[in-house]
Each structure stands twice: as C-alpha cells, then as structure tokens.
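Reopening this ticket.

The earlier resolution said the output was attached, but the attachment link was broken on my side. Pasting everything inline this time so it's all in one place.
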Amino acid sequence: MFIKALSAALLAVMPLAAFGQFSSERPVTIVVPFSAGGPTDVVARRLAIAMTTTLGRTVIVENKASAGGIVGSQGVARAEPDGNTLLMHNIGMSTSPSLYRKLPFNPLTDYEYIGQVVDVPMTLVGKKSLPANDLKELLAYIAANRQKINYAHAGLGTASHLCGLLFMSRTELPMTTIAYKGAAPALTDVQGGHVDLICDQTSTTAQLIKTDRVKVFGATSLQRLPVLPNVPTLAEQGLSNFEISVWHGLYAPKGTPKPVIDRLSKALQDALVTPSFKQAMDELGINIVPREKATPEGLRQHLEAEIKRWAPIIQAAKAYAD
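Inline output:
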C-alpha cells in the first residue's frame, strides 16, 4: 500500500512533459528565422497546417527575420524546453558554424532534433530586362559587365547566398553581392528590375517562372524538375556536376524531454504523408524526405555530414562574418 501511495504521489508531481504531454495547451509555435513569404516560411506554414491535425494541437508560425537567421535560432535555443517552441531552419544550420566567428548558438549541442522535413531544388533567375536568355549568354554577359552585375541573396549563410558562392566559384565570375533580410524582399527587387540575379528555392521561384515574372537560367538539380520540365539544368548547359538543394529540419530547445520529442517527431512523420501537404509540395517542386529521415537520428546524421561538406567550401571563399 505504501509503495502504491508513493508511486501515485510521484506521478502527481512529475511534469506532464515526461509522458509526452505538453506543459500547457497554448499553440505550438514554429519559429522561422527568415522573412514571411520566403521559401522556408512557405514550407513551415504548410507543415503547421498538417501538424495541427497530426499533433492534435494548434501549430502556428512566427517569423523572426534576421541576416542568416541568427536571431530566431538563438531565441529558440534559449526558449523553455517544453515542446511549445520549435525551430524550422534550412541548410544554413550546417553552414553557420563556418560562416560566423562568434555564432551565439551551437547547432550540434543547443537543440534536440525532431527530423528532416523537405529537400528543395533551386533555380537561378534574373530580372526580365537581362539580355541573356540561357546560361552561355549569361556567363558572357557577366564577363563583359563585371562592374555592373549584382547578385541578391537572403543574408549571409542562407541558401541563396551559398548557391551564389558556389556559382561564382565554379564560373570564376565574381559579382557584387547584395544582402537582404530574407528571400522575399530580394525576389521582389529582382522582379522590379532593381537587382540582376538570385538563386533561390523552387518554393518561391516556381510560380514566378511559370507566370513569366523573372527570367530563368537553369535549375541546380542534376535532372530537370517535374514542376519545371522546360527549364534546363545548369549541369546540362555545361556547368558540370553543379548540384545544390536546400534541406529543412525541425528542432526543439535542448533539454526538451524525449517523450515530447518522440511525439513531435511522430506528428511530423504523419504530417509529411497527408494528401494536402504532399499536393502543396508537389505544386512547388519540393521533395518530401522519406520517413526514416524525418526522425531525430536522421536529422542529426544529416546535419553533421552537411557541416563537414560546407566547411571547406566556405573557407576557400573566405566568406566569414563576425
């Protein structure tokens, strides 16, 4: 009787999080450390709708934009580890350790991993008034106008920045780069003719290409994209083995109880196969990761491998920030 009574007492005082329950019934917030309307935001908002159903709780998105996504990422690292505050980040999570000398968070030690979400191809696009119509013409135009051509990106360490670094390195054609606080404002200026080029994810460029609001010069995948079958890849136009896609992952603050992480990961896995989410990703040319990658271990292994992959590229480009 004494043991039963003691067990009941302990269960009464143990936090709900220990059983995979959340400490409150307020909405679960997915923090996107980039601007609203940007590629990561687009994925996060679709995922929030799907996870509201699979988790059985309201899931919302909050944008905390800053160059490179540092402010929002740091905020989640310092948040209460109760499962109510999550982080949706992209490939930049693996490049930040090499890009920043004073990074205020550590991607490998300051978070619990929930799982990978999607893998997004990219396209190189430019303003409509550019005289070039394909990659060959574009390279010739850049070579002849080096002092006038500019390249927009969403901030240091973002996918558009990395794609630009890789493009300039492979073609040996440096351009003036202009950093924005997110992909959405950068793309707005490309459409408006204020900047020349940007390489960004199909989640935001596919519709612009289909509606002829930008000029497209190629996809960064090795095969043509089903969502843009008439767009040649950069590789098939002569930029051999040029491949870059943008993976996204879901994180929680370090110390979030394992039962809560397990519940969130299961909700993520179930959300990825919902018909509405799959249809939305198909329309944007986005690849949903297999279920085994949408796990804490799958995300951890991928993050570690990507940090090793990008470090030498960033070091060679000397693309550092304080």
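Reporter confirms the inline version is readable. Strands lie at 28-32, 59-63, 85-89, 111-126, 150-153, 176-179, 197-201, 215-219, 245-253, 287-288. The CA atoms of residues 222 and 243 lie 6 Å apart.
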